[in-house]
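quick q for whoever's on today - can somebody do inverse folding on this one?? i tried earlier but teh output was garbage lol. tokens:
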């Protein structure tokens, strides 16, 4: 699955066989059904999704997504088609790393053959500024209590609901029990109150290497803002964007420089390996080569499937002079303003995100929690969380989502911001000083954001 997450909180979508074919379909705009019966733009006066009526004749809508592979989402679509026989959803799955660029191509040219699409939550404001999202406020006027507060906030821009959230995310710190025991390092507690500091994790990581571990600490998403933002946030550095409408880069702060100096030291001191692609980081932990692995719950099944891997989970660390901050956010659904299938699309969006727990009720394996409150029970009741090695994961995830979860920067320039920071994190891990890398990023982002000011 996601594993959207952030996020890469996008597992299966990155594992697509024939991903190039899926991308080609998305770029070229494989047509959706054109029968106009019941497929016109939303009728005037329709005020709530509960009043949406199924079309009287068959209609086809196209849904482009990066959160799930075609196989993962198949049971959701099958259930939807059974309940709404006059609406057919054609799903186009695209690898996460290619999704945003091909999506922007179709939305920019107002391609009406694309109806519904995944929206990476931090890009909501950026898509809204470009005119790529439909105002859903009248269709879904009463989300309060139906989805978690943070997800609803992320889907709202300029006071309007412009996307419909369907999944969120959180993070854990996985640790290899065997490597810690060999080094004489006490096993961490799974209680949030016993949260480790990054300073403690660093010291313990070095001890495990001295005792034979190949790597002491490896982040899951080594160059992604989703996972590394909390380092600066923990030290009071903020999201990295501020000022009017969050269009002033704020990366040259004490918090960002201290956090990124620490991050760079992991590679300089060979605690973390250089040059490992994001897609391969969990493999190193699964193979027993890494002592500490900050990552999402979406890797739980990968780790529990290895019967020989003796591991545990604890809370996402913080800096001793700072506060606890964890990544969050996942995917929402957007409605293309150029779509001619608005009513049918909103019926599907409601089913995917809200009805009886939404998509979660039809998937046997859930990598991240659904945004809707009715669907979270299915996530927490999964078999993987009953594995003794995952003890405490459910309580930790609930705690983090309620207390430490922090959204990424809200800015119309998020696309350029995220892309620049990915390169910046790579530079820092490859030896650039935090100060110079953040200064360069500031200049690059300032230039890119001039057009939004």
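ok took a stab at it. sequence:
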């Amino acid at each position: 699955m996601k594993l959207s997450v952030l996020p890469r909180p996008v597992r299966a979508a990155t594992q697509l066989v024939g991903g190039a074919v899926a991308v080609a379909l998305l770029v070229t705009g494989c047509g959706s059904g054109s029968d106009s019966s019941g497929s016109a733009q939303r009728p005037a006066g329709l005020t709530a999704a509960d009043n949406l009526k199924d079309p009287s004749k068959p209609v086809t809508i196209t849904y482009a997504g990066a959160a799930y592979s075609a196989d993962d989402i198949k049971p959701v679509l099958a259930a939807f088609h059974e309940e709404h026989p006059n609406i057919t959803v054609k799903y186009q799955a695209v690898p996460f790393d290619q999704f945003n660029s091909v999506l922007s191509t179709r939305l920019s040219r107002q391609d009406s053959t694309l109806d519904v699409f995944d929206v990476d939550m931090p890009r909501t404001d950026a898509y809204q500024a470009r005119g790529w999202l439909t105002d859903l406020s009248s269709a879904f006027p009463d989300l309060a209590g139906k989805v978690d507060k943070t997800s609803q906030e992320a889907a709202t821009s300029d006071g309007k609901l412009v996307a419909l959230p369907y999944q969120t995310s959180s993070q854990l710190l996985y640790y290899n029990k065997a490597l810690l025991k060999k080094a004489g390092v006490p096993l961490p507690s799974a209680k949030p109150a016993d949260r480790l500091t990054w300073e403690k994790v660093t010291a313990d990581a070095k001890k495990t290497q001295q005792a034979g571990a190949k790597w002491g600490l490896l982040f899951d998403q080594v160059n992604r803002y989703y996972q590394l933002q909390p380092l600066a946030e923990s030290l009071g550095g903020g999201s990295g964007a501020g000022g009017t409408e969050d269009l002033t880069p704020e990366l040259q702060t004490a918090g960002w420089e201290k956090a990124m100096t620490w991050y760079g030291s992991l590679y300089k001191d060979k605690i973390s390996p250089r040059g490992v692609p994001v897609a391969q980081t969990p493999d190193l932990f699964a193979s027993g080569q890494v002592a500490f692995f900050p990552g999402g719950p979406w890797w739980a099944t990968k780790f529990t499937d290895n019967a020989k891997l003796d591991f545990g989970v604890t809370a996402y660390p913080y800096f001793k002079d700072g506060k606890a901050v964890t990544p969050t956010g996942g995917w929402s659904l957007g409605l293309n303003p150029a779509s001619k299938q608005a009513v049918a699309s909103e019926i599907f969006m409601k089913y995917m995100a809200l009805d009886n727990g939404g998509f979660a009720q039809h998937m046997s394996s859930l990598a991240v929690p659904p945004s809707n409150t009715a669907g979270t029970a299915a996530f927490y009741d999964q078999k993987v969380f009953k594995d003794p090695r995952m003890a405490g994961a459910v309580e930790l995830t609930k705690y983090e989502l309620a207390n430490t979860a922090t959204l990424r920067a809200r800015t119309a320039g998020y696309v350029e911001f995220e892309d620049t920071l990915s390169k910046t994190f790579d530079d820092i891990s490859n030896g650039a000083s935090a100060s110079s890398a953040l200064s360069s990023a500031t200049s690059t982002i300032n230039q890119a954001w001039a057009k939004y000011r």
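fwiw Residues 1-25, 30-40, 43-47 have pLDDT under 50 and may be disordered. also The first helix runs from residue 19 to 28. so keep that in mind when u check it
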